[in-house]
Write a structure and sequence with these properties.
- The structure is a single chain.
- The protein is mainly α.
- The chain has helices spanning 12-16, 44-55, 58-70, 73-102, 113-159, 166-181, 190-214, 228-241, 248-253, 261-287, 303-334, 343-362, 367-395, 407-437; strands spanning 4-10, 22-28.
- Helix 6 runs antiparallel to helix 12.
- 48% of the residues are buried.
- InterPro entries: AA_transpt_TM.
- Residues 41-429 form the Amino acid transporter transmembrane domain.
- Keywords: Membrane, Transmembrane, Transmembrane helix.
- It comes from Lymnaea stagnalis.
Length: 452
């Protein structure tokens, strides 16, 4: 068990001016120390719930289709990707612990922990790269969540005999999400994270039941041999499904005991893998090459399909605030908006919601753009930057106990960065090809019926 030790130092400038100032820095042998714990912060359990709620959802719908591109090798790929993602998530948590340990100003609550890691390791360029990647990824995901929620509600209401334009649903959903977006940091909306996790968990069970029901009626299916292009595209989808890293440091910064973040990440990835694998395997076994990108477009219609649409919509509503929150916190820090609830926060986040709504109304089908943004920047944030930042922090020297990365850690980090770069390039290429070969829909504010 690692022992704590207190480090006190005297600022020499104060000594020379005649008044020595004693400053306390929490330090430790290695990576873990006494940090600015939040008395009412997130526990390991609530952090786990946040991580599961942020990651699970889209993977449930997309992974069966990805299995059609990878074949049964996809089972191994899912396991490997979950393990690697958990490992880089733990590395990211260690990076934040080292930053707090070495720089006292970060021991208080930080609104932008991931960019701060980039700042400490590679200066302003490092911070800028992380900030841009997070903002593109999370803002893009927020737009798509708004689009998916609106599409689901339009489909459900249409089945009841009332056809309301999708473009109008965007306004309705944005109006419902607006008050939720005013909440401050993850510790302020932990019940929403529970809602997202529960909704997705139940949706997995219902989808699996629907697939099992279909297995008795669908004809024998064909499982195509593996080809490079579908395989590479599917690999990008699998990696994307396990990449919750943009929001991870925000969760850790709100924890009562940030040093326990690794435990929460390990548990969360075990849960997500157990949610994903049964649906992905069953979907591929039953539908084969007929499995579409969205499993809901493949399963037979009926009460179970409608139930899943409702549950996924609930997940989207709950996850929206989790996804957009890191973007809001960083811009609020830049604009010097107070951390407590107030008029400035309400105004800023209302404007942010307006921008999200405008983009959704401008590009009613956002899939290819999200693939471009998420496939490139999310790969960067989840698989490339955490190992690079960790090795950099281990190599840095200063007024702190040095942390040495072992040989196997260095090898693992280099390998993850290499493979992550290849996957990121493949995913970005696929998205660019998709954008180049498809046309955009007419914006809603030009034709409110054009998107459907």
């Amino acid at each position: 068990m690692k022992r704590f030790r207190m480090v006190y130092y005297i600022k020499m400038a104060d000594v020379q001016s005649g008044g020595a100032q004693l400053t306390h820095v929490s330090s430790v042998k290695g990576e873990i120390g006494l940090y600015g714990h939040h008395k009412h912060g997130l526990t390991v359990l609530t952090t786990t719930v946040f991580a599961v709620g942020e990651m699970a959802g889209s993977g449930v719908l997309a992974l069966p289709g990805a299995m059609a591109g990878t074949g049964y090798v996809g089972i191994l790929l899912n396991i490997v990707c979950a393990v690697v993602s958990a490992y880089t998530g733990v590395l990211l948590g260690k990076c934040w612990l080292m930053v707090m340990n070495r720089y006292p100003e970060y021991q208080e609550h930080s609104r932008y922990p991931y960019p701060a890691i980039g700042q400490v390791t590679y200066g302003k360029p490092g911070r800028l790269i992380v900030s841009c990647a997070i903002n593109f990824t999370m803002f893009g995901a927020s737009v798509v969540f708004l689009l998916l929620g609106s599409e689901n509600l339009q489909s459900l209401v249409k089945d009841l005999g009332k056809d309301i334009s999708f473009c109008y649903w965007l306004f309705i959903v944005a109006g419902v999400l607006l008050p939720i977006s005013w909440l401050g940091t993850p510790k302020d909306f932990w019940p929403i994270a529970i809602g997202a996790t529960v909704a997705t968990s139940v949706a997995c069970c219902v989808v699996l039941a629907n697939i099992v029901k279909d297995s008795h009626t669908v004809p024998p299916v064909f499982h195509a041999p593996i080809e490079f292009k579908p395989f590479a595209f599917a690999l990008g989808t699998i990696c994307f499904a396990y990449g919750g890293h943009p929001a991870f440091p925000t969760f850790q910064a709100d924890m009562r005991n940030p040093e326990k973040f690794g435990v929460a990440i390990f548990i969360s990835y075990m849960i997500v893998l157990l949610m994903y694998l049964p649906v992905a395997i069953a979907g591929y076994m039953v539908y084969g090459i007929n499995t579409k990108d969205n499993i809901l477009a493949t399963v037979s219609s009926g009460p179970m399909q409608y139930a899943v649409e409702i549950l996924i919509t609930m997940h989207i509503f709950c996850s929206f605030i989790i996804v957009i929150n890191p973007v809001c916190q960083e811009f609020e820090e830049l604009l010097r908006i107070p951390t407590h609830f107030g008029v400035k926060r309400v105004i800023f986040r209302t404007v942010m919601m307006g921008v999200i709504l405008f983009v959704a109304e401008s590009v009613p089908h956002f899939g290819a753009i999200l693939s471009l943004i998420g496939g490139s920047t999310l790969t960067l944030l989840a698989y490339i930057l955490p190992p690079i930042f960790y090795l950099k922090l281990c190599s840095m020297t200063g007024d702190w106990d040095k942390v040495d990365a072992s040989l196997h850690q260095k090898f693992a980090c280099f390998e993850i960065v290499l493979v992550g770069s290849i996957v990121g390039i493949a995913a970005t290429y696929s998205a660019v090809v998709s954008l180049a070969t498809s046309s955009f829909s007419t914006p809603c504010y030009i034709n409110s019926d054009a998107s459907q």
